[in-house]
Amino acid sequence: METHRDVAAIIKERGNVVAFTGAGISVDAGIPAFRGGQGLWEKYDPMEYAQIDAFLRHPEKVWTMLREMSGVILRADPSPAHRALGALERAGLLNAVITQNVDGLHQMAGNTNVIEYHGNHRQLKCPTCSGMTALTEDSIKVLPYPICEECGDPLKPDVVFFGEQIPATAVLRANREANSCRIMLIIGTSGVVYPAADIPFMAASAGAAIVEINLSPTPFTSSIANHFLEGSSSTVLPAILREIGLAL
Ligand code: ZN
């Protein structure tokens, strides 16, 4: 398709790509988006299950949701779209991935500069003493919830719950990448969750070409996207890679 070729050409010419990703890129990896359809938020009210005060008051209740989500994340493998971003980095064309996802799949696909705006579910952190430990199949079997070996308090995935701040280092790193990239790929995100959704606008203001890959148009499409590629990122990104002459 003509547009794949156009996008491949500007990636080859400009390099310095930063990807901004959301739930859509992980759907093909077996992780349903939180909102809509099979999403966890259809089953669990986020205000009762993803709110920091709710966690601190009723960790055993919140862990029923976290246990289900942990299982899904631990059993997921990177999608063709994740692997395409890994290949772009290995080819020296991609500098960073800024993700709203917490599944750690970008790192598994070989990306080394991953900025996790909402944290990482594969790490468990103690809200009391900040002790960290890896999430494992064994840790999620512990009832009513996994506990901190240091202080005995309930562990929580190291993700940003409602009522918590986005990690300051993630914000600083994301802003720096958005302001210095020459191409931003928007992948699998509807652009409704703020402040993360500001990032592509920042890149556009700084002069980056904006390439959007989504299943349907979003607020980015008519405002800042120079190229809109409609479809699944697991189909579109490998097609762009083939045009560039790279293997997954
Ligand atoms: Zn602790």
CATH topology term of the largest domain:
Rossmann fold
Assembly state here?
Answer: single chain
- How many extended strands? 9
Which radius of gyration do the C-alpha atoms yield?
18 Å
**How many individual helices?**
12
The spatial strand order of the largest sheet comes to 3-2-1-7-8-9
Strand content: 15-25%
What ligands does this structure carry?
zinc ion
Which blocks of ≥5 consecutive residues have pLDDT under 50? Answer: none
Main β-sheet, in a few words? 6 strands, parallel
Shape: elongated
**What is the number of independent domains?**
2
Q: Would you give an account of this structure?
A:
By secondary structure, this protein is an alpha/beta fold. The protein folds into two domains: 1-30 and 78-118 and 166-248, Rossmann fold; 32-75 and 121-159, SIR2/SIRT2 'Small Domain', CATH 3.30.1600. It has helices at residues 2-14, 24-27, 40-43, 46-49, 52-57, 59-74, 80-90, 105-108, 168-180, 198-205, 219-223, 233-244, and strands at residues 17-21, 94-99, 114-116, 119-125, 132-134, 156-159, 183-187, 209-214, 227-230. The strands form two sheets. A six-stranded parallel β-sheet has the order 3-2-1-7-8-9, sandwiched between helices. A three-stranded antiparallel β-sheet has the order 5-4-6, covered by helices on one side. Strand 8, helix 11 and strand 9 form a beta-alpha-beta unit. It is elongated. The relative contact order is 0.19. The mean pLDDT is 94. The structure holds zinc ion (ZN). Zinc ion is lined by residues 126, 128-129, 131, 148, 150-151, 153.
